[in-house]
Specification:
The complex is a heterodimer of chains A (about 325) and B (about 300). Chain A is mainly α and about 325 residues long. Chain A contains 13 helices and 2 strands. A 6-stranded parallel β-sheet of chain B has the order 2-1-3-4-5-11, with helices on both faces. Chain B has a 6-stranded mixed β-sheet with strand order 7-6-8-9-10-12, with helices on both faces.
Chain lengths: ~325, ~300
């Protein structure tokens, strides 16, 4: 990136603080527009409502950092949800087995994505598009095309609250913290960045590019499994049709958070801000009773606008 | 080499699959069995799965063969499937239309080929040989009337819409608004889509609890998934005993919730009745017997009192 003589200070400030400032401005505007926005209950609601997208977005960040993409997440969410729900029938299996099965279902899908992308050298867009279709089909097979309900209270409790804190939010926080630590303080994190920045250079430097790919896709799938568990527990049912389009919501949040679609550049903190920004806008527009037609337009404009700004400051 | 192995594999697979479809065109009496082509809206929806099961059961009972295709919500695919049925020379076609306008060419093509076509569950712009289904507006009228009764005509109502622009959403919206217009004491204070989805409905309800607070006296959700979502959100906010929730479809979860007095009511659309009747009429037409041009299967309100009986 070359320095721009005309506006060096301002652009670097915008680069670091643009997203938090945007979030604060929108938050402030919503607080004035509706008295219910800035209340503890509502802010907890926002956190609860973003947690599933947040968990997925953390996984997507890892994949995008390596220069790949994962389109299978929504279907994997549904698959993990119905697998968990089938095991979570009242009196069937203890909760830890249900949770392990859900996460494992997601991790398996992710690992298959990883093999196809790294070994088969199939572009990630195509590999995960295939998985998107196959995992949806598998979810329909597992559930016979019907929602799986009557889940044990032990399991659905995972979608509830611990004191005032929603458990989905705690899960999101733990997942985000783990990813942040790994990316920032572990060699694996540096390798993930390196692979996405320049795979040839990374390979020359002795990084096992294939292994990194496997780890990243498997982790992303496992996180989709976690999101599927949270969704099933929250809605008290495992649905084969759940999660359609979730991958795109997650990618949108990650990209708004400043992660580059071409790999190598991005941060978990940005992703969290991106997730929160979308959540605050959804919540605020619902509070203000804005028509769903206009909500869709607003969201689209914000996604394009955020990336536009981001690209321009990277070029300047 | 790799390529060749792959081709061989595909070849073997194709042969096995073809060989697997044995032909049973002859009935027990030795006469040619009646064959009915069925194109369904979407087999990953619980309601359509029930429709399919009831058709299969009725076909078995009547000794006819069904070829069931899943259009997966695509009107274009549906037209192709009907073209396929015409090419196979089926005796009748049952169409469960994806869309009012876009699925119409399927009806036109079948009629032009001289094959009777029966629409089940929803309508198309073109008039088929026969129709079996329910008036979607009616279900919303029943639901909203029940809300009016429970509230004694006075209160604030919020409405959760389905996927905007779909026939079911438009008709249920219309039916609900007819009843609202007749009850000036009922006020629609918020109205938003949750896209038929339980998780989205939970978020929407949480947000409404924030913005409307204790003003909401009843929720009308255009399907049970959203009704369940609204109910769960209200329960978690400890408000369910103050707010009435009524929705439509009578899916298994909702029936259970009504029995447990968590959901106030749902409206039963008789998938089994629709599927069985459609097959019966298709067979009558194929056998050149007299048949009903339009059959309306009535909706039923399911309340905790009536649910116990089911």
């Amino acid at each position: 990136m070359t320095t721009n003589q005309a506006q060096p200070r301002f652009s670097s400030i915008l680069q670091t603080w643009g997203l938090p400032i945007a979030l604060l401005l929108i938050g402030a505007a919503m607080s004035f527009a509706h008295p219910a926005f800035l209340t503890t209950t509502n802010l907890i609601n926002v956190a609860r409502q973003v947690s599933i997208n947040g968990i997925l977005a953390v996984g997507v960040t890892l994949v995008l950092l390596t220069g790949g993409v994962d389109l299978s997440l929504g279907s994997v969410v549904a698959l993990a949800g119905v697998v968990a729900a089938s095991l979570a029938q009242a009196g069937a299996y203890p909760v830890f087995i249900v949770v392990a099965a859900g996460v494992a279902a997601g991790a398996c899908c992710g690992a298959i994505n990883g093999v196809v992308v790294t070994r088969g050298r199939v572009p990630s867009f195509i590999a995960t598009l295939g998985m998107m279709t196959a995992a949806r089909g598998l979810a329909l097979v597992v559930s016979n095309g019907r929602p799986v309900s009557n889940l044990s209270p032990d399991f659905t409790r995972l979608g509830g609250d611990l004191g005032r804190l929603p458990i989905p939010v705690i899960v999101f926080a733990v997942v985000a913290l783990l990813a942040w630590v790994v990316l920032k303080h572990f060699r694996l994190g540096r390798h993930i960045h390196a692979v996405g920045g320049n795979p040839e250079a990374a390979r020359a430097a002795g990084i096992r590019v294939g292994a990194i790919g496997m780890i990243v896709y498997t982790a992303c799938g496992a996180l989709a499994g976690v999101a599927g568990l949270v969704l099933a527990a929250r809605t008290t049912t495992g649905q084969p049709n759940a999660g359609v389009g979730y991958e795109l919501d997650a990618i949108a949040a990650v990209v708004i958070g400043g992660t580059s679609l071409s790999g190598g550049v991005g941060r978990i903190s940005g992703t969290i801000l991106g997730v929160l920004l979308i959540g605050v806008i959804n919540n605020g527009l619902d509070l203000l009773a804005v028509s769903s037609y206009y909500q869709a337009i607003v969201k689209g404009v914000i996604i394009i606008g955020a990336v536009w700004l981001d690209r321009n400051r990277q070029h300047s | 080499m790799k390529n060749l192995t792959l081709k061989c594999l595909i070849g073997v697979l194709a042969i096995t699959l073809l060989g697997g479809c044995h032909r049973d065109d002859l009935g027990t009496d030795g006469k040619k069995k009646i064959v009915i082509g069925v194109s369904l809206l979407n087999l990953s929806s619980e309601f359509i799965v029930m429709l399919d099961e009831s058709m299969q059961a009725k076909a078995k009972e009547l000794g006819v063969r069904l070829i069931v295709n899943d259009a997966q919500r695509s009107a274009d695919r549906q037209i192709q499937q009907v073209e396929g049925f015409i090419a196979q020379g089926v005796d009748a076609i049952i169409l469960n239309p994806c869309e009012v306008d876009a699925s119409s060419p399927a009806v036109d093509k079948a009629l032009a080929a001289g094959i009777p076509i029966i629409n089940v569950n929803s309508e198309t712009q073109s008039k088929p040989t026969a129709f079996v289904g329910s008036h979607d507006e009616e279900s919303a009228r029943i639901a909203m009337e029940h809300i009016a009764t429970l509230l004694k005509g006075q209160g604030n109502v919020v409405m959760m819409q389905g996927f905007m622009g779909q026939a079911a959403q438009l008709k249920r919206d219309q039916g609900a608004r007819e009843i609202l217009a007749k009850n000036p004491g009922l006020k629609l204070i918020a109205n938003q889509t949750a896209e038929w989805d339980r998780a989205k409905a939970m978020s929407l309800m949480e947000n409404w609890i924030q913005s409307q607070g204790s003003q909401i006296s009843a929720v009308f959700a255009q399907n049970d998934e959203m009704g369940m979502g609204a109910m769960l959100a209200l329960e978690r906010a400890k408000l369910k005993d103050k707010v009435i929730v009524v929705s439509i479809d009578a899916i298994a979860d909702a029936l259970q919730a009504v029995k447990e007095k968590r959901l106030d009511a749902t409206v039963f659309q008789d998938a089994r009745g629709q599927g069985a009747t459609a097959v019966e009429i298709a067979v009558k037409i194929a056998r050149k017997e007299p048949y009903e041009k339009e059959t309306f299967i009535p909706f039923k309100l399911v309340t905790p009192e009536t649910a116990a009986a089911q």
